[in-house]
Amino acid sequence: MRIRLDRTICDGFGACAKHAPNHFSLDDWGYASLVGDGTVAEADRDDVLRALFDCPVHAIIEISDNEFDGETRPDPAAATADETPLFEARWGFAQ
């Protein structure tokens, strides 16, 4: 799992640092910074997801490894009758 923090929309609530202090730090004014490169170990996944869900301004974003490789959205017309297409939030809250 990888995450990104958009500091331009952070309002300094601090929920991220409360839930996942190994991945987020707060500056003197309470605004978050990402610790490390955004890679989340499996052991920290639940804490980081809780921080992601509790961020009131959605400044934390989960990204996939292929986020910028030109992958396109799945075609819902290509799904069979027994198969429901899975659409993931690429730039939203979570998957």
Automatic annotation (TrEMBL):
Pfam family, any one: Fer4_15
Entry annotated with the keyword Cell division: no
Domain of life: Bacteria
Record InterPro entries: Fe-S_cluster_ET
Keywords tagged on the record: 3Fe-4S, Electron transport, Iron, Iron-sulfur, Metal-binding, Transport
Cofactors demanded by this protein: [3Fe-4S] cluster
Name recorded for this polypeptide: Ferredoxin
Annotated source species: Mycobacterium pinniadriaticum
